[in-house]
Every structure is written in structure tokens, then in C-alpha cells.
Amino acid sequence: MTVAGDRLTNFPDSECTGLTDDIGWQWQSWEGLPYLTCSLLSRWSHGFFTRDFSPRGPIELTEILAPGAQVYRLQQIHGNVVLNTSQLPPVTAMGSSVQTYESGDGLVARGELEALWVCSADCVPVLIADSCTGLVAAVHAGWRGTAAKILPEAIAQLVAQGSKTENLKIAMGPAIAGKVYQVSVEVAAELGATIAPQNAVSATADSILEFLHQLPETPVLADPEPGKVRLDVRLCNALQLQQLGIDLSQVAIAPFCTYSDSDRFFSYRRDRLKKIQWSGIVSTCDTSPC
Asked: Cα-flanking dihedrals φ and ψ of residue 233, to 5°?
């Protein structure tokens, strides 16, 4: 299985094309500050923002991508709750007041010029767009959300609104890479159970891990510590998408690791600080003939 951009952890700026199957990742600049975009989503205003933009939030960042768009975000809870924009109010500037947010980890647009935002510090930010409807989704997929299949849930909600899976473009932004993400065997098996056919393996962690190791591109790597493995959460999400019948030419994975690249990204696993970077995408009515 080959997913666009999944070969490198990091590469120099001079080589930041990340091209596989004509899909690339590009660094953009705003007032000298870098953020990442994906050619797969080139028709939509979007960005995977770096730590350089902290402490700016969704309102300020939307002004960079699409001034005047309605802004939406959630109070993330590491689950699989996905809401659409008709279920919550847009974010507004509150001055000294504290705004409360609906709980969840995924957002689906219902109209045009809606900016959807998720934050992350090692978890996977996923931006999705429909080339026919112009609608978008944004998902925060940590290991718990991935185990609860939040990305398939977001896809299901888009399909319920009229999307077809073959028209979806899905970009997974910077996150902790599998080769440095140590987890317990039990955590890896919990995610693996979402990928392994129920009739192919027993319910034990060992049988699930054995199945994962036999995959052409396994999301599980060996770890020297007993009871531990290394886990590629982005690849787990890509395998879940493949189970939905989504062709992997529709999927891109950013070749950047939040843990390894301290200059560009916050990482909770590395620093143990509650600091985040934002990723967002704006819906559009400019669609292709379908």
C-alpha cells in the first residue's frame, strides 16, 4: 500500500515537494511564518499551522485563509463524536469573556465559507474535502479516537449529506511518526482490532499484532522494551479508509513528525506541555462537474 507522502519523517525545505502520485506538500508563508498545505486540497483554503503561529487561534487564523468565513471549533475530548455546523454556533470574539464549546473531535460543514478547525500536538489532524459538493470536514484523530473509528464516522456523516467516497480528498497533517511513538501492546491491539477482519483473527492482542505484522506495510514496529511496540496512527487511519473502499490515491500523509521536529511543532510526548498547533479548512461552493 502506498499513500502519498508517507515515506519521509522530515526533509529539508529545498525538497519539500513530497510528491508521490502527483501529490505534494508545500510550505506557505504569512508574515514570515510557515504553514503547510497539500496539493490534494489545493482548491480549498486550508493550512496545517506550525508552532510559530501560537498563541493565535481559529479566529485569527481564519483571517489568514478566508477573511469573513464563519469559524467553528470544538472542545476536543479524544473520542469519536463528530458534529456538523448546524449543531453548534460559530466562534466569535469574546473579549475578556470565556467562550464554551461543544465537545467532540470532528466537524462537518453544512454550507459554504465555513472554516473548520482542530488542534493537535502529536495526534493526527485530518482535513477532508468533497470535490463535488465543496463541503469539508476536520478531524482530530488521536489513538483513542482512531480506536473508536472517528475518521470513518466523519466520512459517514459526509456521505449522509450526499457525498460519494470517490469524490473525497483526505490529507493527514503532521503528527508523531510511528518509528518514535511507543505504546503498549494493548493499545496497538485496540487499534489493530479496527483493521483486522473479525473472522481472520481471535480476540487476543497477540493474534491481532500478528495479523498487523503480516500486512504489506504494517503500522506496528518492534520496540526493545517488553510489552511495548511502536505505532503509526496515521497509517492505521489510512487502513481504515481503505476498508471503506477509498482509493489511497485520494489520501495524503504529511512527511513530518511533530516529535522529531521541535523547531516547527509542539509535541506533548516530547515536552509534556499543553501547547498545540491548529489545522483548518474552509468550505467552498466552487465545485467540479460531477
From this structure: -70, -35
Name beta bridge partners: 72: 116
Instruction: State if pTM tops 0.85.
Output: yes
- Which CA distances in Å does 155 have to 102, 133, 161, 211, 270? 20, 14, 10, 25, 31
Distances (CA, A) of 242 to 25, 248, 249: 22, 7, 10
Biggest alpha carbon–alpha carbon distance for the chain: 56
Q: What is the pLDDT, as a whole number, of residue 204?
A: 87
140 closest CA partner among 125, 155, 122, 121: 125
What is the pLDDT, as a whole number, of residue 98? 75
Nearest Cα to 85, choosing from 102, 100, 99? 102
pLDDT on residue 99: 82
Per-residue model confidence (pLDDT) at position 1? 52
- 190 phi/psi in degrees, rounded to 5: -65, -40
Q: Is the distance from CB of 74 to CB of 120 less than 8 angstroms?
A: no
Q: Count Cβ atoms within 10 A of the Cβ of residue 285 and give its class: 0-12 exposed, 13-18 middle, 19 or more buried.
A: exposed
